[in-house]
């Protein structure tokens, strides 16, 4: 049987567990991306699938474009149980979860396939456990590609180009250290404040994957994009433990299933979304520097310092080695 048939079969089986209902349970889902970003399309599909499977009993109310605040705020609310669900970058959880600090280290993953296998194995279980200790349940992960630097000032081609730059980062200790190690100044800002910060001169650079560089409009302000691919931290969909424990087993299964189906859907479309975004940025004037044109040897030196800071004991070392050993 083909995978698509298996998936549809599972949805049909789950649907059998739901009776037609009059009142529905609604889950508020926060995301910072605007409509049009692949992530939002994927979440809309998840909402539709969930509503169909549950015969209308389970509904997702999607709040896109940061309507519920920045990602840090959304994560805090999920932990506290005052927001049902959030889709955030896993880096947002680094402050609270030691496993995520290790996962955020540069150059940890050899490839996207390697990353997915790590998330599906023991390390994935550890992340789930740490999330639960914080009051959240991990429903699924999504592709986020690799992140690269962009600047409004100049192309970054070597370590020397970082000197004096003020670079926006997500609120993660690893990202802040990464920028300092490169000789620049980290500026922590929520995603929706980045464009204004470029305009006002508060920052000279930021970093992100190509779909976000383009859908946010940053490519129009910070035209120099250097594909150094310094990190690949996936996106995560979390639900508050409070909401999760109020659901029946059938409801939990339907939600898990819709989430994992949406992640599979994203996996198929991600590469195209990267290619199309990069083509758009180039066509509209972004100056793109390929990885082969960047003096990576100098830049990669910072990774060594980060590894020695974040691998604090033999257990951390064993964890990182286990990640590297995953085939
Ligand atoms: C995007 C990511 C968001 C958020 C944003 C940021 O690529 O999808 O979840 O992390 O980057 O830089 O704040």
From TrEMBL:
Lineage: superkingdom: Bacteria
Pfam families: DctP
Signal sequence region: none
InterPro entries: DctP_fam (IPR018389), TRAP_DctP (IPR004682), TRAP_DctP_sf (IPR038404)
Keywords for the protein's UniProt record, in alphabetical order: Signal
Protein name: TRAP transporter substrate-binding protein DctP
Organism, scientific name: Uliginosibacterium paludis
Organism phylogeny: Bacteria, Pseudomonadati, Pseudomonadota, Betaproteobacteria, Rhodocyclales
